[in-house]
Structures are given as C-alpha cells and as structure tokens.
Amino acid sequence: TAGDKRFSHDAWRHGPFAMAAAAYLLNAEFMTRIAALVEADKKTKDRIRFATEQWVDAASPSNFLASNPEAQQRMLESGGESLRQGMENLMHDLAAGRISQTDETAFEVGRNVATSEGAVVFRNDLMEIIQYKPMTERVAKRPLLMVPPCINKFYILDLQPDNSLVRHCLAEGVQVFMLSWRNVDESMSQMTWDDYLEIGAIEAIRVVQEISGQEAINLLGFCVGGTIVGATLAALAARQIYPIASLSLLTTLLDFSHPGVLGVFIDEHHVKMREQSLGAGGVMRGKELAATFSALRPNDLVWHYFVNNYLKGEKPAAFDLLYWNADSTNLPGPMFAWYLRHMYLQNQLCKPHQLQCLGESIDLGAIDVPSYIFAAREDHIVPWHAAYLSTQHLGGDKRFVLGASGHIAGTINSAKRNRRSFWTAEPQHLPSDPDAWLAAAHEEQGSWWLDWSQWLAQFAGGERAAPRVLGSAEYQILDPAPGPYVKQRVS
Hints:
This protein has 15 helices and 17 strands. It folds into 2 domains: about 1-75, no CATH class; about 120-280 and about 330-485, Rossmann fold (3-Layer(aba) Sandwich), CATH 3.40.50.1820. An 11-stranded mixed beta sheet has the order 15-14-13-12-7-6-4-5-2-1-17, with helices on both faces. It has a two-stranded antiparallel sheet with strand order 3-16. A two-stranded antiparallel ribbon has the order 8-9. The chain has helices spanning about 15-35, 40-60, 70-75, 80-95, 165-170, 195-210, 225-240, 270-280, 285-295, 300-310, 320-325, 335-345, 385-390, 435-440, 450-455; strands spanning about 120-125, 125-130, 140, 145, 175-180, 215-220, 245-250, 285, 330, 355, 360, 370-375, 400-405, 420-425, 440-445, 465, 480.
C-alpha cells in the first residue's frame, strides 16, 4: 500500500486496516485484469474497463468512515468536530450540486484571476472580443487572436500574472485579442454549430483584422476552440478566403478516431437520446459536463475530495486552476448534439468533403498555412496520439510539440516557472504513426511556451509602435477586461 496515496497515512500501516487496504488493492488489481481479458470489440472492452475502474475506485475502504482509520483518528482528536464540519461541507455541496474542489471564496474573476489589463471592444449575442493593453513599446504588426474552448471560461489562458499565457505573449511584444464566449442561457437555446463558426470565430477574425489593419492575423485555438477554428478555416478556404498567417492548436482534436476515455460515453443510442432531448432546442447544462469530466479521473477529482471534505472535515485549499475548472459553462442543445454526432460519433471533420459547415464542403487540407500543434503526453481528454493526427490532415508546414503532464497542467506550463519538459523532432519529420514520431523526438527541459514564442515570431509581419488606445473609431471600448460575459455563472 506504500505507493498508493489513499493509504499513505501511518494509521493504515498496522492491524486490520492494513489488511483491509492490502486486500482491497489485491482485489482491485484482480478485477481490473479480469476486465481486460474480456473478449469483445474495442468499444465494449473500453466500457467494461471504465465501469470496472469506477466500481473499484468507489469501493476503496478509504471512502467509508467505518473503514478509514485516518478519518476516525481525526474525529477522536477533534472531539467530533471534524465530523460536524464534514456534514456542514456536505450540506454546502449538496446545495451547490457538486463536490467542492477548491476554496472558491479565494478567487474572483477580474480581481485575482483574469486580471490582464484590456478592454471589451466588440460584443454580440454569442461572444465578446477583448483587446489587451500592450506591455512593450513596440509590437508585432500581426495580432494574435485566441479562441478558447466554449465548454469552459477563457481565463484558463489568463489565470494569474505568473501563469498567464496572455501576459507571456504581451511581454513578447504580441498584440493579443481574446474571444470570450457567453455562458448560454435559454435565449440562446436554438444556437447551432454553424452559429459558433459564423457569429463566433468568423466575426472575431473580422473584428481583429479591422482593428489591427492586418489582412492576415495569427490564430490560436485551444481544445474545442481549436476544433471550431479548424472547421471555420476550412469553410473559409472553400470560399477562397484565407484570413490567417499562422495557426496554433493546443490540445485539440480534429481527428476523433481515437477520442480516449470520452469515447466510452458516445454511441448511436446516446447521440440519438441527446438529439431527441436537445437537438431541436434546449441547454446542455455545464454542471452535467463538469460531472462527466470529473468521472474520467474519479480518484483525483471525486473520491479525494469526498474523503477530505466529508470524512475528515477539511476545507479544500485555494487553487486557481481548480477554481477555473469549477466555473463551468452551458452549451446550446442543437450545437452540442450536432457536435456529438458529426465529430465524436462519425468523425467527419477530418474526412475530406464528408462534412458541411456554413454550406461549404470541409477539407482540412485546404488550410494551407504554417501550424504549431501542441499535445500533452498524459492528457486523458485529448489523447496526444489523437491530437498528433492533425499533422496528417492540415496543409502547410507543421510543427508538432509534445508536452509533459495533462490536458491543463501541460498546456499552462508557465515560462516564468519553466518546469517540466517537452519533446520535439528536428527536422519536423511527421510520420503517420505517432509513436514513430516520439521514437525520433528528443526531450527538452522547461516550458514549451518558449519554443512556441520563437516559432510564432516568424509570422509577426514586422513591427510597429504599440497602439496608444484600444479599439478603434468603429470599435469603441464597451467595458474593461475581462468583461461581463466571463462573469456569468451557470444556474
């Protein structure tokens, strides 16, 4: 049990509790191996494995007061106060409808997260555009537009000054614009995938072009934001419109043939159910999406907090990343149902001329610009092998970089802290097999942000004096950053 943090406390090392922990781990390994031996198709095997892991994790003796000696010891030492506090924590979380993972009172959007100085310079029913105040006297002529995922808030890219990708770019002399998605309510329940392209990404590109005076801008898409960007650019290419000089994709799926553990949930029956309930209108609640993502890592994101919050009576520590993770967003039902069918179920985006967006036949190969594709090696939401496949579908020169850690921690690897590592291959040989690429790659210590900044500098389009005012005559300042849309919480 020494290697399992659930049983690391001294109270687990002696007597019947040590025996219970050892027996549990032995049986857990047995159940997991039995599940792996089932003869079935891959989808069925994955589902059996997933269900077994969920049951095994839930059945841990650490999850029950009667079999958790550490929680019992805490209760005795505190005279029952830990149990009283645990019940108070439970009642609070039941009212909120989710398990607390961080001290949410420690953070406030615009006060100590999402604090980069700037202004909202455009707003429509779906999104806002934030222009950030330059931090250098001279800036690149071509601006960078960041398109975050619509299933979360944008400020994962602007958490705090020392781990903000926005501030990193500003310090490098990049003009930064951010698309901030609106948190969907009933008034938006009819919005579609095409709306996210037309009045989301395309409108954002147009606004940034007009404010900056640049015909071609640099574009970054993160997670689902990258998928939206890919579909948008392919639709524009079909119209012979080429609005960007470079494309950066961070932990993005364009090819959904290997969607990882999320694929366990997706089949024809599930998609039809979503289409029947949401396809004609409705709202996909952010709380349901958040619960699904937590279930992908139950020991870390469910049972750890169950034990600490309720059995031990502890308050979660303040952690900016987990505060952002809890700040979930709603999605329009028609958009969500369409996305499930055409991306996860049918994987049509990466198949030339198999998908129509905005009335155009989609071919990712028509996106003929240099691209930087980043994946995270331990990502359980966008497996790096799947993210790598974007290199096989996009046109233009491509650079693939693999970072250490997971979906968020791997991406938000601040250059100031310069921790972890990343892998790249020189020259950029991109075989069809991701493992063949990794075998030829070499590891570099530090943050991949520095590698990306060096790559992005090639597409600066020259320099200019930093703009003294934000917006333009046509695009006046509407609100200070981070704007009102990002502050809307799900109900």
